[in-house]
Design goal:
The complex is a heterodimer of chains A (246) and B (312).
Chain A (H helix, E strand, L loop, with lengths): L1 E5 L2 E3 L7 E2 L4 E2 L6 E3 L1 H18 L2 E8 L4 H10 L3 E6 L5 H14 L4 E5 L10 H9 L3 E11 L2 E8 L2 E8 L2 E5 L11 H7 L4 E4 L8 E7 L8 E3 L4 H10 L5
Parallel strand pairs in A: 1-6, 1-8, 6-7, 7-13, 8-12, 9-12
Antiparallel strand pairs in A: 2-5, 3-4, 9-10, 10-11
Chain B lengths: L1 E5 L8 H12 L3 E7 L4 H4 L9 E5 L7 H15 L3 E5 L2 H14 L2 E6 L7 E6 L4 E7 L4 E5 L14 E4 L9 E7 L12 E5 L10 H10 L2 E4 L1 H5 L20 E5 L5 H7 L4 E6 L6 H4 L2 E4 L2 H18 L1
Parallel strand pairs in B: 1-2, 1-4, 2-3, 3-9, 4-8, 5-8, 11-12, 11-13, 13-14, 14-15
Antiparallel strand pairs in B: 6-7
The chains are: A alpha/beta (246), B alpha/beta (312).
Chain lengths: 246, 312
């Protein structure tokens, strides 16, 4: 089975969020980039487990520029067989999805996996967009996945519970917590990653459907009001009269 | 021109669907709702109270298959001539809106938190640590509104319900089984949430959290370490890698408030933090803080809520 795992870089979860150029650009100063945790912990690691159980290959793909190769090498160190970088600035989810769908179609991937969302843009769009562009079923928010031949059985999140579904591959799956446990790359993986193929591919032309104009920061939180631990009646009264939430 | 709103009516119409209709109404065009499934006409007609002029329902679609729903909504866009589609950004919408964006070549704004200003819409980015202002360049537009960003406004009366054939095609996803815990308030929809972390020392101590939640009519949640060591089920884990919630009230007991936890709860309108450590970072993000032992404070709070309920 040929599995394609879509990865995105995202700032380390502890990064300070700030903007430059008149609040139009994310301030990368001092920011450490990681593989978006949903892409890494859940999509990539489960893809590797499926490959180990059923055979096949795992390719990681990202849309980005040369500095992103460091993040891609980490995915190779974790165990992906090879990588593809579509050489372009990822402007919006539609642009990214069209690039990946085009590559996946041309190269006959049978399973495309994404994380449920990135932790920087939280759009949760790329998986669905790829599936429509490839005219494939889309299973979103999968927390478990197994494959038997070309049939996949998955557990997915629904409002207030879970459901178990079955789908014939090829398909696109977005992965949430529960799919797999994080894998730390070992020294052998890191060494091997240096020589694994990383193919840089030119982008296709795509219409720009959305643009990010600028960013703003949330208003500063007013100071926390401390309540006497002996006096919970006061807290309840404040929640009722001042905060108006109960 | 009109605005089409997708509402999920599988288990009745949730509050977030009424929020989406209210939002659509504020865009200033005629609002038409589209849904699928077997809900009663009288239930669907309530969309009118929030501003829909009619509800289209395709009764041939029985599941939430994203491919089918996308075809139905795309066909409804065509037959109504709508130039804008509004979703509530819940689980089903997250799989359908992106597909629809590609099918219609319509720009999608996902996670909107406010009414458009001019041609830009404010969205949550960096897990709520910042906002982005996004513009859609295409003629057709799709906006997916984060739940609990605006309040539903009842302005009208029940509307007509019309059968609609959306040519959904076949479902390629086969539903084998649905598991829903009985009697629990689903976390993503909850307006009040009571949450606890490692400070509770063990799963056997969760009774007081459940008591408080029950008294408030709240859902229960937990921090990541607690879900990882198996004290609580994974679906209760709120935070960066778990569920992101936006309730009106979030009460956190024995959670220090690591940045990854805050990322999942910073959309809460009011945060109450109970912790024995005055240096716990969560106090900086809280509206109300109680410096004290959860084992004493939480039962006391439950009693206070009981007393309040009895006198109101």
């Amino acid at each position: 089975m040929k599995i394609l795992v879509c990865i995105s870089k995202s700032p380390d979860t502890t990064s300070k969020i700030a903007f430059t150029d008149g609040d139009t650009k994310f301030d990368e100063n001092g920011v450490q980039y990681i593989i978006n945790p949903y892409d890494e912990w859940y999509a990539l690691v489960r893809a590797l487990e499926l490959k180990e159980a059923n055979g096949g290959t795992v390719t990681v793909i990202t849309v980005g520029t040369a500095p992103d190769d460091a993040v891609i090498r980490k995915a190779l160190a974790i165990g992906a067989d090879d990588a593809v970088r579509i050489d372009a600035e990822p402007t919006d989810a539609y642009f990214v999805s069209m690039q990946i769908a085009n590559h996946a179609k041309e190269n006959g991937f049978e399973l495309v996996m994404t994380g449920k969302e990135t932790i920087n843009y939280n759009g949760s769009q790329v998986g669905g967009m790829i599936s429509e562009a490839m005219d494939l079923p889309f299973v979103s928010l999968a927390s478990k996945m197994d494959i038997d031949g070309m049939t996949a059985t998955l557990e997915t999140e629904i409002v207030g519970g879970i459901q178990i579904i079955e789908v014939e591959l090829p398909a696109v799956v977005s992965c949430a917590k529960g799919m797999a446990e994080q894998r730390i790359p070992n020294m052998r993986g890191i060494m091997a990653a240096r020589t694994k193929p990383l193919n840089v591919v030119a982008p296709i032309e795509v219409e720009k459907l959305t643009s990010f104009n600028n960013y703003t920061m949330p208003p500063a939180k007013s100071a926390c009001k401390m309540i006497d631990p002996e006096n919970m009646d006061e807290l309840v009264a404040l929640l009722h009269q001042e905060a108006k939430v109960i | 021109m009109s605005t089409l709103v997708y509402i999920n009516s599988r288990n009745g119409i949730a509050k977030n669907a009424y929020e989406a209709i209210t939002y659509a109404k504020k865009l200033g065009q005629e609002v038409i709702a589209i849904t699928t499934g077997n809900a009663d006409d009288s239930v669907l007609a309530t969309a009118g109270e929030y501003g829909a002029s009619k509800v289209l329902v395709d009764r041939s679609v029985a599941t939430d298959d994203a491919q089918q729903l996308t075809r139905v909504i795309a066909n409804a866009v065509e037959s109504t001539g709508a130039n804008t589609v509004v979703f509530s950004n819940e689980i089903v919408a997250k799989s359908v809106a992106p597909r629809l964006s590609v099918r219609l070549k319509a720009g999608l704004i996902s996670g909107a938190i406010a009414i458009p200003e001019g041609d830009t819409v404010k969205v949550n980015v960096f897990s709520g640590k910042a906002f982005g202002n996004v513009k859609i360049n295409s003629d057709k537009k799709i906006i997916s509104l984060l739940p609990n960003s605006i309040q539903p406004e009842q302005t009208g009366s029940a509307c007509s319900v019309e059968e609609f054939n959306g040519n959904a095609g076949e479902a390629k996803i086969k539903l084998l089984e649905t598991k829903k815990p009985e009697g629990e308030i689903p976390l993503p929809e909850a307006e009040l949430v009571v949450s606890a972390g490692r400070g509770l020392k063990g799963p056997e101590n969760w009774g007081m959290i459940e008591d408080l939640a029950k008294e408030l009519g709240a859902a229960t949640a937990c921090s990541r370490p607690v879900a990882d060591i198996g004290w609580r089920p994974h679906h209760e884990h709120v935070g960066q890698t778990g569920v992101a919630i936006r309730p009106n009230l979030y009460i956190a007991a024995g959670i220090s408030g690591a940045i990854q936890h805050l990322a999942g709860v910073n959309g809460s309108k009011v945060i109450v933090v109970v912790n024995t450590d005055a240096e716990a970072p969560f106090f900086k993000a809280a509206d109300y803080g109680v410096l004290g032992d959860a084992f004493e404070v939480i039962p006391r709070l439950t009693e206070a809520v009981k007393k309040f309920k009895a006198s109101n």
